[in-house]
Amino acid sequence: MKLAAVFLFLGLAYAGANELTPKQMAAAESVECLTVPTPAEFFSAVDKAGKPDWAAFYRPPGRTTYPTRPQTAVNLGALVADGFVAVEAEDGQQVKNTGTDIITLARALGVGDNVLSRGKSISDFADKNDWFALREELEATANEVRHAMQSQRDQALSSLITAGAWLRALQVGSRAAELSGEDRTAELLVQTELVARLRADLEALPETARTGPVIAQVSTALASVGEAMAGTTEGKLPPEKVAAIKKQTEEFIVQMGANQP
Amino acid sequence: MTKYLLILGLMLAAPVGEARAQLASPVKTEPDAAAPADPQSKAPGLRARVLELAGAMGNDGFKLRDGLWSGRLEPGQPRRLAVNLFAGNQYWFCAATPEGFRGPKLALFDPQGKPVTTLTHDGPGLAAGGVTAAATGRYFLELLPGSGSASDFCLVYLFK
Prior knowledge:
heterodimer, B: alpha+beta, Jelly Rolls, four-stranded antiparallel sheet
């Protein structure tokens, strides 16, 4: 009953008159699990802006083994974004297939046991068409893999999972913007600070962890995408910049799906 | 009874008026599934209370992010968290301080650092702010103790 009293005090808050200074904004804290949004949030906004045919963004089934752990991590992240696409499409079978692939890649990274029960939950929720729970479950699965990586002191793989998810999400978003021609959808692609954050995460890795072709490819892809987002006026993104983001992310995702040395 | 009053509050206060067909849906905030223990969290009681508040939002179709922000609030020393929001999405930010304290003061600033008007819920040891993001970008959440004393806090956010 006590908690109910909370709702007796409803209102509009006009936040303090003082604006934040650039210094205060720069000093703001950052908590990865909240500061970095999920592709689900992005897709939710894309759906409101243009109601795309989500099934049009499916990819053909990919491989389930990759030559290196970094490449596996990037593809696991991309699969998480695919899972959210399937949830938006409300396609239970596609969600289950994607969930199975996520668990397979998690196993390849040595953390399959940590998310085995998540895989079952994804399957159960998909059978019940519980799209609401599936969004939460997919995010929780990705977080558990990342936490497991971090507990193994493998921050690089954790960062690559996040970057892979976002590069695939931007590929889907840019294609949606291109198909709809809606300015509102295109504007959602302007995520300069997020891309800068993902790049900074990679740059903050120890020198030894930053070697290898995959991290270099991810950094290059993020830099190109960030460049395409830069210089926009009032958040507007012209069609040629949407096309540039789509081309760069598409090439990257194809490259990551290929058999690299 | 409590649950129905919570739902009534949300019906009055959701950022954008929409059909309330989802009110009958079950609460989705299972603490162990939706928000794994944060190793930095020193206040599991706060976490449970803030998730209870967030659970009421879940009944209105808001999805809980899998994570939380917790720590200590000192008088006169605001804590600020950067969050990336998307234009058109609705958000609720829910914070808890220990029972017996006033709820924290919660404010939101847009990517230019300008204060954003939010819908609010205030109560003993609890505060929530709701907004529909007008632009895509990095926003800033600010928390201050609601009373003159230092206190622990725990914050989660939801979107739809």
